[in-house]
Amino acid sequence: MINRDYVPAIGLGVSQIMGYGCLMYAYAVLLPHMATDLGLSLSEVFGILSLGLFFGGLVSPIAGTLVDRFGGRWVMTLGSLIAGISLCLLSFVEGRIGLFLAILLAEGAGMFVLYNVAFASVARLAVGIPAQRSISVITLFGGVASTIFWPLTLALFNRFGWEATWIILGVAYLIVTVPVHLYVLGGAENDHTVRSTADSHDWPELQGEARKRGMLWMVISFVFSGYIMGAMMTLWVTNVQDIGHTAAMAALAGAVIGPFKTVGRFFEMLVSRNMYPLFTYILALGLMLAGFAILLSLGFTLVGVVLAAALYGMGDGIKTIARGTLPLALFGSKGYGARLGWISFVQMGINASAPFMFAWMTQTFGGWWSFLAMAICLCAAIATYVLIPDPRRLS
């Protein structure tokens, strides 16, 4: 029998599969075909997606503040209702204006239902497990989103076309996520004016000047490591095709990323009782960079591209956990939702340009050079990571 303390995390894990699958991964398959039918270029449609992501970053602090004030139940329930409707609206677009408005609505709603809000929501619940463990469980489920939705979306498109595919995805999202959010987030919540199970490791928080420096370098590192995320989700298939593989093979190799995200997160969950989030984060960056090194050197072979996807997937899976647990460890649980919202605001405000920039780079120079630029971003993330102060040493 499942421990009831894990039910909220498991439910939110299921909703993240649907959220990232429908609101992120589906674009990689459908946007190139929509561009052809709507008479737009690849860089135009991904430029529109970049604007949608930027808008999502703008509303992210609002979502985090609402969770801190009212809890996650109604924030995520209403967010999932609007997100599902916006997915259906994508099937009716007839030009760049309609596409822009539909994506703007979808990505704005996404900030009320995806990881940051899920992390903040579960951290508020009065359950018998630490928030770090709940975050690990949520991401453990979310890791299979690409595995399910890249092949599924491609199959739906081949059978029904992109218009009907968006309707199917939107209705499925509504059916699954609205009742899940309504049910699993209905429990009692912690009083965050005192230390709670979210902080059960009793790690010291950064104080004073070190707190400001820690926030600055953590956010900058998050920006560099997150800059490639949207591009990988939306351009993986296109870039892998560009280095010599078929669309089916690119989707198959991309499907490897999801299970290895889950492998990485399962490993983190097994050792998280003794793993400080600063170490979790650098481990993630190292695995991702190793994946890019193999992709750039051996990506023209099937073995190379699959191995690269596996290493990148493990690292990205662990990084998602660190994105939630590192701010919790360094700065504590009070105001956690708003803090994640502001971090997301800065990160997404900058990173929103990534799909457009890397799509332009792919069009201009080719997929290999686009992947190289992503690897350079990871190197910058590692360089700024070393400047984050460790509160355990300072205390």
Question: What would your notes on this structure say?
Answer:
The chain contains 16 helices and no strands. With 395 residues, it is an all-alpha fold. It has one domain (4-394): Growth Hormone, Chain: A (Up-down Bundle). Helix 1 (7-38) crosses helix 9 (208-242). The radius of gyration is 20 Å and the shape is globular. The model is unreliable at 192-200 (pLDDT under 50).
Any key phrases for this structure?
single chain, 395 residues, mainly alpha, globular, 16 helices, Growth Hormone, Chain: A
Order of helices and strands: HHHHHHHHHHHHHHHH
Largest sheet: none
CATH hierarchy, class: Mainly Alpha
Tell me the distance between the termini.
Answer: 42 Å
Taking pLDDT < 50 over at least 5 consecutive residues as the criterion, the unreliable ranges are: 192-200
Rg measurement, Å: 20 Å
> In one word, what is the shape?
globular
Under the CATH scheme, the architecture is Up-down Bundle
Q: What name does CATH use for the topology?
A: Growth Hormone, Chain: A
Topology:
Blueprint (H helix, E strand, L loop, with lengths): L6 H32 L3 H29 L1 H18 L6 H15 L4 H10 L6 H12 L2 H16 L1 H23 L23 H35 L4 H25 L5 H22 L3 H30 L4 H16 L2 H12 L1 H19 L5 H4 L1
Helix pairs in contact: 1-2, 1-6, 1-7, 1-8, 1-9, 2-3, 2-4, 2-5, 2-13, 2-14, 3-4, 3-8, 5-6, 5-13, 6-10, 6-12, 7-8, 7-10, 9-10, 9-12, 9-13, 9-14, 9-15, 10-12, 11-12, 11-15, 14-15
Q: What is this structure, in a nutshell?
A:
The chain has 16 helices and no strands. It has 395 residues and is mostly helical. It starts with 6 loop residues before the first helix and ends with a helix.
